[in-house]
């Protein structure tokens, strides 16, 4: 009896097991087919029922819907970008002869120095972009670092720029951002019809018929000592001069918070520091505002070619513009003919790089709160943009209620994750 019951129960269990397994297979196959059909007709998997099947749009950087083949290409491209950035930095403790030898061997790996199908379209792309838009102000930036290092703080710079200049145009000279990843980074702005684009520069074109043409030719032949400082930094110093000389407009570093409209400014450079009697002691090239083919830009490039030294920080950047303008100041007649203005530190450099951390802090004291309110009041009246000295401040947390936090909050577009950056 017991054996019969056990055998009969076993048959039932076996029957139901087979039936259950078959049912599971059917459900999986049916679901897979349903999902496949749904996916083929929708580019985004999750939609709102209340929005008539329209995809939800993010207010910040969106991840592109790439195929596996494209994703693999992008990953390879990003690795190459990182490699390029590292390869532009020479080993330490080399003699000049050893560094030139190293540079000649590495030249084929430096993508920024190469001409490509995309870079050869540089001039036509710039002109097409500018001519197709009614640009109230033309802005230029450079980004030679890998695309994946363009972070929230850099994006805040773009937000504040367009908050102050909704009808402005921004061209970012960058090979690494002139990519699908770069398009994705800028997507939140372009979706709102702001005029921003990344374009791969053609350095041979930019430097053609300028005082640095021969210098650049010698560099590409490996006949120049690039110095210990990353070549990318010095190339950025030079590119900003050349692009303004060719097109005119405003050059800005990517570590600025823009506070107000630049439309009233022409042919200007900002002082970084002044003496007790009010005379400037150092200028900076983090912001430059000049007409096309302005003679001062020409003189800056002449100085770059004549005095290039890749071993001294600032030699080919802030110190360069300071040297040239100081010489011209001694020749008052020539300065008048060149027609340019030196703006006071409050215009762009209201805090020195040594004390910039104070702008990121918020102490819970009445005295500090009053100081912050007074400083913000001063900045709102006299400052066009605040330079963040990113090399020093990039690792400093933005504290809630700090000067930087409140400036970004007041001048951002999306205002996303300000205190997480």
UniProtKB/TrEMBL annotation:
The keyword Transmembrane helix belongs to this UniProt entry's keyword annotation: yes
Keywords, ordered alphabetically: Membrane, Transmembrane, Transmembrane helix
Membrane in keyword set: yes
Coiled coil spans: none
InterPro entries the UniProt entry points to: A1-4-GlycosylTfrase_dom, GlycoTrfase_DXD_sugar-bd_CS, Nucleotide-diphossugar_trans, Put_A1-4-GlycosylTfrase_plant
Gene3D superfamilies hit by this protein: 3.90.550.20
Residue stretches making up the Alpha 1,4-glycosyltransferase domain: 290-416
TM region positions: 12-35
PANTHER family linked to this entry: ALPHA 1,4-GLYCOSYLTRANSFERASE FAMILY PROTEIN
Name the record gives this protein: Alpha 1,4-glycosyltransferase domain-containing protein
Organism: Solanum commersonii
Record lineage: Eukaryota, Viridiplantae, Streptophyta, Embryophyta, Tracheophyta
């Amino acid at each position: 009896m017991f054996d019969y019951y056990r055998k009969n129960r076993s048959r039932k269990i076996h029957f139901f097991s087979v039936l259950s397994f078959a049912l599971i297979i059917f459900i999986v196959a049916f679901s897979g087919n349903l999902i496949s059909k749904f996916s083929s007709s929708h580019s985004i998997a999750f939609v709102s029922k209340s929005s008539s099947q329209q995809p939800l749009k993010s207010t910040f950087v969106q991840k592109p819907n790439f195929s596996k083949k494209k994703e693999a290409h992008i990953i390879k491209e990003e690795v190459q970008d990182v490699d390029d950035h590292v390869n532009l930095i020479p080993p330490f403790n080399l003699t000049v002869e050893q560094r030139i030898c190293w540079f000649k061997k590495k030249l084929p790996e430096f993508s920024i120095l190469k001409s490509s199908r995309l870079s050869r379209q540089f001039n036509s792309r710039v002109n097409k972009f500018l001519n197709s838009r009614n640009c109230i102000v033309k802005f230029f930036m450079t980004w030679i670092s890998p695309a994946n290092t363009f972070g929230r703080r850099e994006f805040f710079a773009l937000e504040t720029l367009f908050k102050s200049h909704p009808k402005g145009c921004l061209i970012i000279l960058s090979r690494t951002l002139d990519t699908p990843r770069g398009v994705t980074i800028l997507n939140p702005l372009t979706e709102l019809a702001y005029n921003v684009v990344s374009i791969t520069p053609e350095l041979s074109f930019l430097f053609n018929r300028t005082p640095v043409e021969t210098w650049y030719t010698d560099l590409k032949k490996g006949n120049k000592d690039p110095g210990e400082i990353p070549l990318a930094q010095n190339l950025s110093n030079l590119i900003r001069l050349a692009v303004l000389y060719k097109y005119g407009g405003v050059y800005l570093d990517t570590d600025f918070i823009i506070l107000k409209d630049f439309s009233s400014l022409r042919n200007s450079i900002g002082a970084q520091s002044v003496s007790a009697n009010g005379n400037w002691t150092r200028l900076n090239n983090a912001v430059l505002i000049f007409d096309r083919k302005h003679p001062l830009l020409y003189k800056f490039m002449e100085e770059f070619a004549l005095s290039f030294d890749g071993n001294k920080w600032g030699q080919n950047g802030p110190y360069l513009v300071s040297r040239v303008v100081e010489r011209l100041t001694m020749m008052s007649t020539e300065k008048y003919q060149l027609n340019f203005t030196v703006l006071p530190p409050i215009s762009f450099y209201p805090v020195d790089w040594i004390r910039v951390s104070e702008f990121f802090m918020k102490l819970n004291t009445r005295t500090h709160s009053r100081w912050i309110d007074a400083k913000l009041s001063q900045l709102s009246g006299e400052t066009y943009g605040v330079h963040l000295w990113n090399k020093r401040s990039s690792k400093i947390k933005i504290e809630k209620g700090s000067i930087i936090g409140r400036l970004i909050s007041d001048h951002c577009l999306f205002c996303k994750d300000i205190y997480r950056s």
